[in-house]
Amino acid sequence: MDLVTTPPLDSLTVDEKAALLSGADFWHTAALEAHGVPSIMLTDGPHGLRKQRGSGDHLGLGDSVPATCFPPAVAMGSSWDVDLIRRVGEAIGTEAAIEDVAVVLGPGVNIKRTPLCGRNFEYFSEDPIVAGVLGAAMVNGIQSRGVGASLKHFAVNNQETDRMRVSADVDPRPLREIYLRAFGRVVTDAHPWTVMCSYNRVNGVYASEDRWLLTTVLREEWGFDGVVVSDWGAVDDRVRALAAGLDLEMPGSRGVTTAQLLAAVADGSLDPAALDAAAARMLALVDRTGARAPEPGPLDVDAHHALAREAAGRSIVLLKNEGGLLPLSPHADIAVIGAFAAAPRYQGAGSSMINPTRLDRAVDEIRAMASGSVTHAAGFDTAVDASETEAARLLDEAVAAATGADVAVVFLGLPARLESEGYDRDDVDLPANQLAVLRAVVDANPNTVVVLSNGGVVTLPFAADVPAILEGWLLGQAGGGATADVLFGVVNPSAKLTETIPLRLADSPAHLDFPGEFSHVRYGEGLFVGYRWYDARDLDVAHPFGHGLSYTTFEYGPATASGLADGDVEVALTVTNTGPVAGREIVQLYSSLPGATTQRPPRELKAFASVPLEAGETREVTLTVRRRDLAYWDIRVDAWIVEGGTYAFDVAASSRDVRSTVHVEVPGDPVAVPLSRASSIGEVLADPAAGPILRAAMAEMTGDAPAAVMPEGVDLSKLLDSFPIGRVTMFGADVDPAMIDALIAARPSGGAEA
Ligand code: BGC
């Protein structure tokens, strides 16, 4: 693309401005040739480039140019590694630049509310700090190449069922503290050039028409200065959407909605200033994307494949490794079992489907690294209609391969049709035929390693019976090589779970409120998403959030904490690699406020670090908790409030493996809660101005011993705590209503400390 400087807005006619706000076709914006404004291309994303060659579709059906298929977010999230994800973002940005793509449609930072969401493979975590920090890394990487990112799907798009209509009905605290938090983090830290609004409704309003979401929160609170683009086909009413802050509708509507915009401006129902603002933002985007120097290519396929392999190796979670079965000796005789070893499941279906530049098969990579014998048996068929005779034959073949081998490595996973964009899963189980093969193989050879390929979590009913389990997620095009690297210890696994693996679906937080009915889904679990739920309910899980093993061991030194001048909190500790090989440890920091006055999950992640350590090496690790991240959303004043108190900070190897706890006194924010006749006596007493006046008046009325007026055993202060002050006269108290009004008026503009 040549360097572009767009014309001043006022040189454009109203028609031209409106034309800019709707796609010219499936993937391109409209050009204004008379003004030298080029058309730009926006295309998927998020874990590689899907640039279609022919006519477009958003289902991943049509052919696209070959591009490196990096591990999807479910996998890369497990690396918890900002630098790695940034490097992958840079590589995607480079590939986009070579293909003259202006904006890559990703990353997605929606929260994994339920393990059933068909699109969980595209998302990073059940935790907003993980999703936000890693999403920001991806945006930084892509945009460092002069290519825009599109942060999606804004917002509260946590299921595929009825995704184009469903209303996510969510209370203000979880909305702010869980579902919007990751988006806010990415916008303020990484400044994506575009944000993609989601299909669904939020509390009854289409995201595409939600002025509060697209303008008040996104632009006014977070300072977003880019273009809001619709998800493909997410616009229901174009005029309302534009007024709400949706700049670019994609794909195009062949002029239909442009005419609607023009008619609305003409009849006065749409403020021309809204049209101007959106057109100006589109021109600014064209300028931004046009400022990039040309990237002639060609794509360095080998280098990007190597990066994809590195990223995949860093994404594999070692869930279990009893008796040190892993890593395998290269001299071992290995039975590789399972269809996925030869026909990998390496990405999810839908708009993110990439046409990979090449594709590793685990069985070939294992063969290449082994010096012992390697046999392969498919073990099972992933097709729905496999016959029983065929199943029996495959099972016998698998048992024969396992018998006599030193070790059986069994590749199990979800067949592709079970998880996809566009629909959700029905359960979290691996197919019964695969579990049957595993049982038979374990009976024949207890030295069995399970390698999983799945985009959404699966339950592990076999966990007690197999000594070693690798969670391989969907690993992208180099997953086969990366799996061999980890199996043989060329790469020491260092990934950890960014989502809980439950024992049963019925234990999961949204179980009774999913997928909703009549196009409404109630987020009844509130703040208690993911580990916040399992911890608060004291539920056993298969593997907790943050869990992941290594071939080495790590020791945590004692932690120290200090409050910084800007209100942030810094926690420092040392970590030592006490084992025989180099590795990485993901150190996690959780906070809690014992005795908090607001509802709080028992423990919430606030910071983390992926720490590389040579064998025997010790490093100092410093984790910073932003003061803002300690805040809750106060519905009384519609603001973030840090409650004052002594916070506990847990330094942990997983959400259920706390290594040390430090305490820090954190001052609270003032809360200016407005007083009214409906305010309770407790609230008035807590007010710095009205409180002392009321206290004095009460002492005068009841004498020095207020309890004396109450029957014995009644706690007067508790009784009055929630009693509305405007009602006291109704209970015969001799109180002048004018005094109540005076009290209410006494509240200062400041407020009480939380
Ligand atoms: C998806 C988006 C994607 C778009 C374009 C939509 O169906 O939800 O994530 O970027 O299609 O393919």
Instruction: Quickly count the helices.
Output: 20
- What's the arrangement of strands in the largest beta sheet? 9-14-13-12-10-11
What class would the helix/strand composition place it in?
A: alpha/beta
- The count of strands amounts to 29
Shape: globular
Bound molecules: beta-D-glucopyranose
Radius of gyration, rounded? 29 Å
What this model shows, in words?
- By secondary structure, the chain is of the alpha/beta class.
- The strands form eight sheets. The chain has a six-stranded mixed beta sheet with strand order 9-14-13-12-10-11, with helices on both faces. A five-stranded parallel beta sheet has the order 1-2-3-5-8. Strands 7-6-4-16 form a four-stranded mixed beta sheet, with no helix packed on it.
- α12 links the parallel β10 and β11.
- α4 (128-143) packs parallel to α6.
- The relative contact order is 0.10.
- Bound molecules: beta-D-glucopyranose.
